[in-house]
Amino acid sequence: MNKLKKWIGKSYLGLIMLFFYVPILYVMVFSFNESKSLTRFTGFSLEWYEKMFSSRPIMEAVYYTVVIALIATVVSTIIGTITAIGLSKSRRVLREVVLQINDIPMLNPEIVTAIGFMLLFTSLNIQKGFWTLLIAHIVFCIPYVILSVMPKLRQLDDNLAEAALDLGATPMQALTRVIIPQIMPGIVSGALIAFTMSFDDFIISFFTTGPGVNNIAIYVYSSIKRINPSINALSTIIVLVVTLVLVLVNVIPVIRDRKKGKNEQGI
Question: Is the pTM of this model over 0.70?
Fold first, then answer.
């Protein structure tokens, strides 16, 4: 009976993995198809990659996506980290209230948030474009950073900062040399989540952007009614880049810890 349950569990997990990854593999394979067919592979070709890199609309979409994602990640990580540190030193009632408010954007449907941003910019007579899109991305990324940093701050020993101050460190030195290094894993996790959320966002971007400013998600949506294999090539590159980043993020800490362990043993 136990073997049957294990077999069913493994089969269920396998089906879920196939459901998630087969479409990605399908897109990657047909990005090398020499014809426009999305159902029959007629031969290997790099034609669609060449057309993708020579397509100005696609390159502009990639440019806006990357630039906005990077700026939003940096700004939201800084603001979110500082806010989390401030909340960790605040009264419990204030901290709980702010954290509950912080959860609202993540629990709220994106369409509601998007319409809220659109009405805000419209009521303030702000022309929608690059800056409205950037502001919206920064705002909706901040809660994810706070949520990632707070657990690390709860694990942090309060005596560390006090000891640094007693030893002559300034508050800024205690922050940058004691607190931030201890919570760096939470900061990195928050930054990665913020980058991912900004990079693939569609709904909020669609309602807050203006003419001539499209990210990848909006460009793909606008091309959905016509067959464009260049989208498969673009998707393949994105998947490979994201996979590479995830591998580096997970492998580098392991290598660093092993070197640290070897150095400690050598000492």
Answer: yes
